[in-house]
Amino acid sequence: MRVLIAGGSGFIGSHLSEFLSGRGHEVFIVSRDPSRGIPYDEVHNHVREDTVIVNLAGENIASGRWTRAKKKKIKESRVWAGRKLVEEIRKSGQKPAVFLQASAVGYYGRSRDEEFHEDSPAGDDFLSHVVVEWENSTREVEEMGIRRVILRIGLVLARDGGAYPRMSLPFRLGLGGRIGSGEQWMSWIHIGDLVRAVEFLMENGHHGPFNLTAPNPVRNEEFTRLLCRTIRRPCFFPVPSFFLRLVFGEMADYLLLEGQKVIPRRLIESGFQFVYPDLKRALESLEGVG
């Protein structure tokens, strides 16, 4: 298939581009920087009936403190890209085969007790509101008769990018430990399963929201224990909550100290087979163990 990936030069986008190219798909990157790919203003020239559009574009939420300006950029970068792609589809006069809209498990808000599935309601905090607007930025394509899939992505684990290299560095130095209470849920997915799931949803006629997380989320304390065991390092240095709030500000609560238990119910029911359904196997893959 012919695949246009907005945000395709980012962490997830580069992995997805490489995977889909290797599977025989014709992949094009859409970027604000013309030297990196197709400019947004020219997308309409590349839309055909066999085209898949994947919208991953958005400011990195984990880089820098959440100042008022940063929070504005987090939201506006996502909404702008979505609306711009819809505008380009209208301009093209053609309907792509499917539109895959990136989203995040932050949609559901934060909880240490509740379990979330695709039909769970949206939360009521900053990230939830951002994610709802992100999803809604491309809702109009459904009114055009275009199949739309929403990818609610969890914590993506990869050796070469995303959060994992930064998360694991203190452990490699022998300075790792649980974060805060350790009771917060981590809804994760191995990058290999993520890109496979995107292709699966591209090709199998599905629509609507899908949680892109592994079927076995873990609490932070369990994540810490398994990581230490995998890389054979001690776990003696828990990181106190007050220190994280001091360093990271508001972002600490959203991304480090609180979480949500998210289950990929629709992906499982659709017959998708995870290569890395449990954290032990995923960490061993990342670390080249076994």
Number of strand elements? 12
Largest sheet: 6 strands, parallel
Mean pLDDT, all residues: 94
Helix content: 25-40%
Distance between the termini: 35 Å
What is Rg?
19 Å
**Discrete helix count:** 11
Structural class: alpha/beta
**Uncertain stretches of 5 or more adjacent residues:** none
Q: Mind explaining what this structure looks like?
A:
- The strands form four sheets. Strands 2-1-3-4-6-10 form a six-stranded parallel beta sheet, with helices on both faces. It has a two-stranded parallel sheet with strand order 5-12.
- Helix content is 40%, strand content 17%.
- The model has no long low-confidence stretch (mean pLDDT 94).
- The chain has helices spanning 11-22, 68-92, 126-136, 140-143, 164-172, 191-203, 220-231, 241-248, 251-257, 265-269, 279-287; strands spanning 2-6, 26-30, 51-55, 98-104, 115-116, 147-153, 155-157, 185-186, 188-190, 208-212, 218-219, 261-262.
- By secondary structure, the chain is α/β, with parallel strands linked by helices.
Which features would summarize this protein structure in a list?
290 residues, 6-stranded parallel β-sheet
Task: Describe what is shown at a glance.
The protein has 290 residues and is of the alpha/beta class. Helix content is 40%, strand content 17%. The protein is built from eleven helices and twelve strands.
